[in-house]
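REVIEWER CHECKLIST
Item 1: Sequence provided? yes
Item 2: Single chain? yes
Item 3: Sequence as submitted:
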Amino acid sequence: MKRDTLALRVVAVFLLGAGLYHLVGALAPTFAPRLPTWRHGLFAAVDLVAAVGLWRDFRGFSLLFAVLTAQQLWSHGGDLLRAATVHHRLDALSLVVVLLMPGALALVLRRARGHTPPTV
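Item 4: Structure as written out by the authors:
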């Protein structure tokens, strides 16, 4: 298995975990009350579709993942900045998302172009 494929599958597993978190948040609103139930439900579905797309590409996935990446950078980037400046703490989850998503997007775009990286 190529490194790019392995990396995308690792990110897919993280997205499945995020989807599970949001599914529980949608079904049990007191579990994660910071977000409304509808948003948890939406991101449970979005995370599942993204995980499937990372595991097995489908037509139009690159654009969908680019939009998701932009949304996650906006949302989690804002959370990260707010946590640091207002609450004087590190939001580790948001930091991971902000660092992980652009790299995953680069791999998705490389896969979509059919680029095969050199093997080591």
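Item 5: Key structural point noted by reviewer: The chain has four helices and no strands.
Item 6: Recommendation: ____
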